[in-house]
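Chapter review: from sequence to fold.
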Amino acid sequence: MLQYFRINQEKIMVNKIILIGNLGQDPEAPKKTQTGKSVMDISIATQRRGQETTDWHTVTCWGNTADAVYKYLKKGRQVYVEGRLQYDTWEDDEGRTRKKAKVVADSVQFLGRKEDSVSGMQNNSDGIPF
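The C-alpha coordinate string follows.
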Protein backbone atom coordinates (compact mmCIF):
# COMPACT_ATOMS: atom_id res chain seq x y z
CA MET A 1 0.00 0.00 0.00
CA LEU A 2 1.46 3.33 -1.04
CA GLN A 3 1.12 6.12 1.48
CA TYR A 4 2.02 9.78 1.30
CA PHE A 5 3.17 11.55 4.42
CA ARG A 6 2.78 15.30 4.48
CA ILE A 7 4.60 17.80 6.64
CA ASN A 8 3.80 21.44 5.99
CA GLN A 9 2.01 20.33 2.79
CA GLU A 10 5.24 18.98 1.24
CA LYS A 11 5.77 15.41 0.09
CA ILE A 12 8.47 13.49 1.91
CA MET A 13 10.69 11.20 -0.15
CA VAL A 14 13.01 8.56 1.25
CA ASN A 15 16.03 6.87 -0.32
CA LYS A 16 17.31 4.44 2.32
CA ILE A 17 18.94 1.06 1.95
CA ILE A 18 19.73 -1.40 4.74
CA LEU A 19 21.90 -4.44 4.04
CA ILE A 20 23.12 -7.20 6.34
CA GLY A 21 25.59 -9.41 4.55
CA ASN A 22 29.16 -10.60 4.25
CA LEU A 23 32.14 -8.79 2.84
CA GLY A 24 33.00 -10.43 -0.49
CA GLN A 25 36.75 -9.75 -0.45
CA ASP A 26 39.42 -8.06 1.62
CA PRO A 27 39.07 -4.28 1.21
CA GLU A 28 41.66 -2.47 -0.89
CA ALA A 29 43.33 0.64 0.50
CA PRO A 30 41.07 3.68 0.20
CA LYS A 31 41.83 6.19 -2.52
CA LYS A 32 42.18 9.85 -1.56
CA THR A 33 40.22 12.67 -3.16
CA GLN A 34 41.90 15.97 -4.03
CA THR A 35 40.85 17.24 -0.62
CA GLY A 36 42.38 14.21 1.11
CA LYS A 37 39.12 12.43 1.93
CA SER A 38 39.21 8.61 1.81
CA VAL A 39 36.88 6.73 -0.54
CA MET A 40 36.56 3.02 -1.35
CA ASP A 41 34.15 0.48 -2.79
CA ILE A 42 33.41 -2.85 -1.12
CA SER A 43 31.27 -5.79 -2.22
CA ILE A 44 28.61 -7.14 0.11
CA ALA A 45 26.93 -10.52 -0.48
CA THR A 46 23.36 -11.08 0.68
CA GLN A 47 20.90 -13.92 0.23
CA ARG A 48 17.15 -13.63 -0.03
CA ARG A 49 15.22 -15.49 2.62
CA GLY A 50 14.52 -19.05 1.53
CA GLN A 51 16.73 -18.86 -1.57
CA GLU A 52 20.30 -19.89 -2.28
CA THR A 53 20.91 -17.15 -4.85
CA THR A 54 23.52 -14.60 -3.79
CA ASP A 55 22.99 -10.93 -4.56
CA TRP A 56 26.12 -8.77 -4.77
CA HIS A 57 26.00 -5.10 -3.82
CA THR A 58 28.63 -2.44 -4.44
CA VAL A 59 28.91 -0.15 -1.42
CA THR A 60 30.88 3.12 -1.50
CA CYS A 61 32.37 4.21 1.82
CA TRP A 62 33.72 7.70 2.52
CA GLY A 63 35.98 9.33 5.11
CA ASN A 64 36.42 7.68 8.50
CA THR A 65 34.06 4.88 7.49
CA ALA A 66 36.33 3.93 4.58
CA ASP A 67 39.40 4.07 6.83
CA ALA A 68 37.78 1.86 9.50
CA VAL A 69 36.53 -0.68 6.95
CA TYR A 70 40.03 -0.99 5.49
CA LYS A 71 41.66 -1.27 8.90
CA TYR A 72 39.31 -3.73 10.59
CA LEU A 73 37.37 -5.80 8.05
CA LYS A 74 38.36 -8.92 6.15
CA LYS A 75 36.63 -11.14 3.61
CA GLY A 76 33.65 -12.97 5.07
CA ARG A 77 33.00 -10.56 7.95
CA GLN A 78 29.32 -9.83 8.49
CA VAL A 79 28.35 -6.15 8.30
CA TYR A 80 25.27 -3.98 8.69
CA VAL A 81 25.16 -1.15 6.14
CA GLU A 82 22.81 1.83 6.07
CA GLY A 83 22.94 4.15 3.10
CA ARG A 84 21.22 5.42 0.00
CA LEU A 85 20.83 4.03 -3.50
CA GLN A 86 22.69 5.90 -6.23
CA TYR A 87 23.06 5.22 -9.95
CA ASP A 88 26.33 5.81 -11.76
CA THR A 89 25.86 6.58 -15.47
CA TRP A 90 28.54 6.44 -18.17
CA GLU A 91 28.94 5.88 -21.89
CA ASP A 92 30.60 2.65 -23.04
CA ASP A 93 33.02 2.23 -25.97
CA GLU A 94 30.13 1.77 -28.41
CA GLY A 95 28.42 4.97 -27.30
CA ARG A 96 25.67 3.27 -25.29
CA THR A 97 24.58 4.75 -22.00
CA ARG A 98 25.20 2.38 -19.08
CA LYS A 99 23.91 2.51 -15.52
CA LYS A 100 24.98 0.74 -12.37
CA ALA A 101 23.31 0.86 -8.98
CA LYS A 102 25.40 1.19 -5.84
CA VAL A 103 24.84 1.95 -2.19
CA VAL A 104 26.53 5.02 -0.73
CA ALA A 105 27.08 4.12 2.93
CA ASP A 106 26.03 6.44 5.72
CA SER A 107 27.26 3.91 8.26
CA VAL A 108 28.86 0.46 8.37
CA GLN A 109 28.63 -1.57 11.56
CA PHE A 110 30.74 -4.66 12.12
CA LEU A 111 28.70 -7.71 13.18
CA GLY A 112 29.73 -11.08 14.49
CA ARG A 113 33.22 -11.81 15.73
CA LYS A 114 36.46 -10.92 14.06
CA GLU A 115 37.27 -14.64 13.90
CA ASP A 116 34.19 -15.22 11.71
CA SER A 117 35.94 -13.69 8.71
CA VAL A 118 37.86 -15.97 6.37
CA SER A 119 41.18 -14.17 6.86
CA GLY A 120 40.65 -13.93 10.60
CA MET A 121 40.29 -17.70 10.91
CA GLN A 122 43.64 -18.19 9.20
CA ASN A 123 45.51 -15.87 11.55
CA ASN A 124 47.13 -17.11 14.71
CA SER A 125 48.88 -15.13 17.41
CA ASP A 126 52.34 -16.70 17.25
CA GLY A 127 52.85 -16.53 13.49
CA ILE A 128 53.36 -20.29 13.02
CA PRO A 129 51.72 -21.35 9.73
CA PHE A 130 49.92 -24.45 11.10
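Two observations follow directly from the output. Residues 119-130 have pLDDT under 50 and may be disordered. The first strand starts at residue 6 and ends at 7.
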